[in-house]
Amino acid sequence: MRRLYTSSDYTTQYDTGVVLGRTQITGNPSSNSLYTASDMVELTIGNPALSRQSDGSFKLSFNISQVADILSFTTEDLIGLSPTINTDGKIELPFTSSDGSPFYKLQFGTNDE
């Protein structure tokens, strides 16, 4: 049996196909239902989750909403709470709920910025 392609030919064609496929996807992410980094910034214009302050520091803004049912959310009152940093370097914000709802939504960015 005579081979039409060598092993090297297969490898080269495969590698070329992978690069072309990657280029097609990253070159036009919207046609593949994907987002680019600039799209993610555009989704939060005027409502940034992480914003640079005038002194060069950053501020992370978020709300915690309690889920009453699958469609209704009530924003938790976080005024007066003090976040801490745990030994793993993670932010912790202990809070209680008036009715003990088991479901919460963390919403980054607020409209009052």
Describe how the helices and strands are arranged:
Elements: H1 7-27, H2 37-43, E1 50-52, E2 58-60, E3 62-67, E4 73-75, E5 84-85, E6 91-92, E7 104-108
Antiparallel strand pairs: 1-2, 3-4, 3-7, 5-6
- Biggest sheet overview: 3 strands, antiparallel
- Using the alpha-carbon principal axes, give the shape: elongated
Biggest sheet, spatial arrangement of strands: 4-3-7
Unreliable segments of 5+ consecutive residues: none
Q: Calculate Rg over CA atoms.
A: 24 Å
End-to-end separation in angstroms reads 72 Å
| Number of beta strands | 7
In total, the number of domains comes to 2
Number of helices: 2
Average pLDDT works out at 76
Beta content = 15-25%
